[in-house]
Design brief:
Chain lengths: 172, 143, 627
């Protein structure tokens, strides 16, 4: 076999391997809890829960020292379990908590907050869940901690004391 | 056409090589298939046409309130929020196995509703959800 | 200027210097100026020093708990013991990439300061520098360990307790020194091909550069296996886990390379093999890197990563593979085969076993990659069990042992004497010894075990024979140690596999379990409290025949983050290990889950691996002195 022939076979083989592994990497089956950590939050704009005219943009989060983003829903039972911890966090701290309401009805969401309290500085409505998926979320509840727009750690499932401690240790 | 002796020898050698290679490849492929353990979520089991004879894995959430003990056998339900499978297991419960948490079991399906587990696969940490389980649950949530 | 910014700056200066180095090397190559390499060496040395500085500053950031550094924040905590703060530096993806590039540079540094033909040296440093540049760019732009968090958090997130282990401190460095170290023989081979200096002189020099990383990788794999044994709590030491396979594949390729190079040196043959294996070994290393870091695998071992980085790594690997293989194709060093060929020559036996090694590698490769591909293409999630590997590899392993036994005893050239003369000695001895062992000492009688004993003892006997009857002046101790080690390893692995026992039970204090010839008594528990964890010990007495062994396995509850680990209790002697692990269950609140394993010959397994590595190290030093 001459040289050109071999190089062609090599190229084709490697391209096939590349395509195959590219498919592997892109398949959504890959789920690691720390997937988005270290990355800048993807751009999004959400309507405010209480006033449709107000828009919450990810850009506002880019210069904040630390921000907590909590993805929740009124129909989600673990969200109710973690809620008191969020309320405590709001009471005791200067860290702002942004809520993203996931695949919910506005009325139910508002009622939830009226009944159990509102720990959020702002709540964005993510009715089809697209923004949450872009954040790397796989369900509710999930909570993210950002530093100047970069995700520095996250919690899957309802938050616990351990997680709250970590947030409290971010700054005095 | 006349083949030279060395050409004939080479041909013989090549054919021999091809046959041995085919046998070996067949052997490997066969073994691979036999020792490949497929993973299913409960809903996927419902959609199966038959009951697999080989060892399989089943994953999902351990349904709250379903874990019971009968002498030396544990019974619990694995669910993916769409379908449920009853699991029977005769062994030790690993550390992070609990109701409401995800679990992957390995064993044989007796029928589409009943699984006999020989092993419960251990996880590494609380927040870790095996990807197969996460996917099964994700599909539920995006509906 | 903080330590972190110094480290970051060092990396950037490295990139600049590297680009400059590549340019000046290119100029020299074009002008064919291979003299006076002082300036080249100086730049190369500086790059190494800067990378070392960068790595040390990262370690420093961990030691002082500088949580403004993202890597430190995510992986460390003020209460971590100092040793683990330090090792935390390379226990995460970003930090370990710095180690990766540092070792690429270390080998370049060592090589440039060694005695080699200048033309070869320039080309080798050229190729190595390209590798360094590629990974430096990857490091800085996608995995920079010096990324900052501002304002600086007061406390870190902590490192996983299961990874806080002295063995895991040294396992990565040995592993990296091994498989990243193969980059040098890769570059040296490309240099040889391009300059048409791929000859026996090349082989003489390359021996050292193959043996050094090979020995390190052997130790690295052994350490990882040893860690898995006492940490994971299942009594096993090798699970054919994709991450384990990722380190085994370069090792298999490197072993083939090692032997192919010996033939190249002695017989001026197998040049294509040696060149191709030099490239292929490093490609296997890169494949392993990709598998572990791209998020394609899910294992306690795989770094938490994302597919985004995976695409980068994949592209890098395929490009490196493509260009190196193109060079090989164009410059393939085909030499005419020597006449007077006989089947019973040493080089032929080495060649045959090399085919076996490549076959083993393919089997492992298929088993590792098949689930990944199947999932992507068909969406079906599967896993490949150990039975696949064991079933396929075992029969071929036996034949491999046979060739390994006779190869070293054959001449390099056609021998007028009878072919495998020593079969008459080896076979009876192996048969007798195996029979004695299996019928007197072991209770499990099985044909495969019997064959395994026969072939491994066969190899061991042949090595001893070789040792006694070989001419003292030419004693190849390296080979003797390593081959002996390998025979002993197979021997121990099979005895262990067929004679191990496992007992599972749920027990309360005071309970006693009698089964399989053992009596296990749960004597009591005691608790202790330490800085970052609380521990519950179980006291167990295991009796077998007249022997009594006390074991104290425990469960630890860590605070930061909250995690439970199970600490094994192992008592070893030359015959067997008594291995005990316990865990709690949320469901069984008043009982403890107990796992007892009887694992024969474990010490022999570790000893064999050390023996194999020792042979390599010994030979490395000999190779160093020879040139």
């Amino acid at each position: 076999m001459n040289i050109k022939y071999r190089i062609i076979i090599l190229t084709v083989t490697l391209l096939i391997i590349f395509a195959l592994f590219l498919k592997v990497l892109n398949s959504n089956k890959i789920y690691q809890p720390n997937q988005m950590i270290g990355k800048k939050i993807p751009e999004f704009i959400l309507e405010d829960l209480f006033d449709k005219k107000i828009k919450i943009s990810s850009k506002e989060l880019l210069d904040k020292d630390f921000v907590v983003i909590n993805i929740w829903a009124s129909w989600c039972i673990p969200c109710r379990v973690e809620h008191p911890l969020l309320m405590n966090l709001k009471k005791n701290n200067q860290i702002s908590i942004i809520g993203i309401n996931y695949k919910d009805e506005r009325i139910n969401a508002k009622n939830f907050l009226k009944t159990y309290g509102n720990p959020y500085q702002l709540v964005g409505v993510d009715s089809n869940g697209e923004v949450s998926i872009q954040l790397g979320a796989y369900g509710v509840p999930e909570t993210y901690v950002l530093n100047k727009g970069k995700i520095i750690f996250k919690n899957i499932g309802p938050i616990n004391e351990d997680f709250v401690t970590k947030i409290l240790q971010l700054k005095k | 056409m006349m083949f030279s002796k060395s050409a004939k020898n080479r041909l013989k050698f090549f054919i021999l090589l091809l046959i041995s290679a085919s046998i070996i490849i067949f052997f490997i492929y066969n073994n691979l298939k036999k020792n490949t353990v497929y993973f299913y979520a409960p809903q996927e089991i419902k959609n199966l046409s038959g009951v697999p004879a080989n060892k399989v894995r089943l994953g999902g959430l351990v349904k709250e309130g379903s874990l019971k003990k009968n002498n030396n056998t544990y019974i619990f339900v694995i669910t993916d929020l769409k379908n449920e499978i009853l699991v029977e297991y005769n062994g030790l419960l690993p550390n992070l196995f609990a109701e409401g948490k995800s679990a992957v079991v390995e064993g044989f399906l007796r029928d589409k509703k009943y699984f006999i587990a020989s092993t419960i696969l251990a996880k590494h940490d609380e927040n870790y959800m095996p990807p197969e389980v996460a996917n099964a649950l994700k599909q539920k949530k995006s509906k | 200027m903080t330590a972190g910014s110094i480290g970051n700056l060092a990396l950037i200066v490295c990139i600049i210097l590297n680009i400059y180095l590549i340019f000046s090397l290119t100029t020299r190559v074009r002008k064919k100026n291979f003299k006076d390499l002082k300036k080249i060496k100086f730049i190369n040395n500086s790059i190494f020093i800067l990378l070392l500085v960068s790595f040390l500053t990262l370690i420093y950031c961990f030691v002082i708990s500088d949580f403004a550094n993202v890597a430190v924040y995510q992986n460390s905590h003020t209460t971590k013991p100092l040793l683990y703060k330090i090792s935390g530096a390379w226990g995460n993806h970003e930090g370990s990439m710095v180690l990766f590039v540092l070792i690429l540079s270390l080998f370049s540094f060592l090589f440039s300061n060694s005695k080699v033909n200048e033309e070869l040296k320039i080309y080798t440093i050229f190729f190595q520098s390209i590798l360094i540049l590629i990974f430096l760019i990857f490091l800085i732009f996608t995995s920079n360990p010096f990324d900052q968090i501002d304002p600086k958090p007061l406390q870190g997130l902590g490192l996983t307790p299961i990874l806080q282990d002295p063995l895991l401190v040294i396992h990565p460095p040995f592993l990296y020194f091994g498989y990243v170290g193969f980059s040098l023989i890769f570059s040296f081979a490309l240099a040889g091909l391009v300059t048409n200096r791929f000859n026996s002189l090349w082989s003489k020099v390359s021996n050292f550069w193959i043996l050094l990383p090979w020995s390190s990788l052997t130790i690295g794999i052994g350490l990882g296996s040893f860690w898995a044994y006492y940490e994971l709590g299942w009594g096993g030491y090798w699970f054919w886990d994709p991450v384990e396979n990722a380190s085994l594949m370069p090792w298999l390729a490197a072993t083939a390379l090692l032997h192919s190079n010996i033939v190249t040196l002695k017989k001026d043959k197998l040049y294509s093999w040696t060149a191709l294996l030099s490239i292929f070994t490093f490609v296997m290393s890169l494949l392993g890197t990709f598998l572990v870091r791209s998020g394609v695998l899910n294992s306690v071992h795989a770094f938490a990563n994302d597919p985004y980085r995976g695409v980068y790594i994949l592209s890098i690997i395929l490009l490196i593979t493509f260009f190196s293989l193109v060079i090989f194709i164009i410059k393939d060093p085909k030499k005419s085969s020597i006449t007077n060929y006989s089947f019973f020559q040493r080089d032929n036996f080495i060649l045959i076993n090399n085919y076996f090694l490549i076959f083993f590698l393919s089997v492992v490769l298929v088993g590792t990659v098949y689930p990944i591909i199947l999932e992507a293409v068909l969406g079906q999630s599967i896993s490949v069990g150990p039975v696949y590997y064991n079933t396929i590899l075992t029969p071929f392993l036996f034949v491999f042992l046979f060739f390994m036994a006779h190869g070293p005893l054959l001449n390099w050239n056609k021998d007028k004497n009878i072919k495998l003369k020593n079969i008459k000695i080896f076979l009876p001895i192996s048969l007798i010894l195996s029979s004695i062992i299996i019928f007197v000492f072991l209770d499990y009688k099985n044909i495969i075990l019997f064959l395994a004993l026969i072939f491994s003892i066969y190899l061991i006997v042949s090595v001893i024979f070789d040792w006694i009857f070989q001419k003292k002046l030419n004693l190849n101790l390296g080979r003797l140690f390593s081959h002996l080690g390998f025979g002993l390893l197979i021997f121990s692995i099979f005895i262990n596999a067929y004679s191990s026992k496992e007992i599972n039970s749920a027990m309360k204090v005071g309970d006693e379990v009698k089964t399989q010839g053992f009596i296990i008594k749960f004597q009591g528990i005691n608790k202790i409290k330490k800085d970052n964890y609380e521990e519950i010990f179980g006291n167990f007495l295991v009796s077998k025949d007249n022997k009594q062994v006390q074991l104290t396995p425990s469960i630890r509850k860590y605070n930061q983050p909250v995690q439970f680990t199970s600490e094994t209790s192992i008592k070893s002697n030359f015959i067997t290990d008594y291995y005990f692990a316990i865990n709690l269950s949320e469901f069984e609140k008043d009982k403890i889950m107990v796992r007892f394993y009887y694992k024969p010959f474990m010490l022999w397994i570790w000893f064999s691996v050390l023996l194999i590595a020792f042979g390599g190290i010994y030979q490395t030093f000999r190779a160093r002195n020879e040139y």
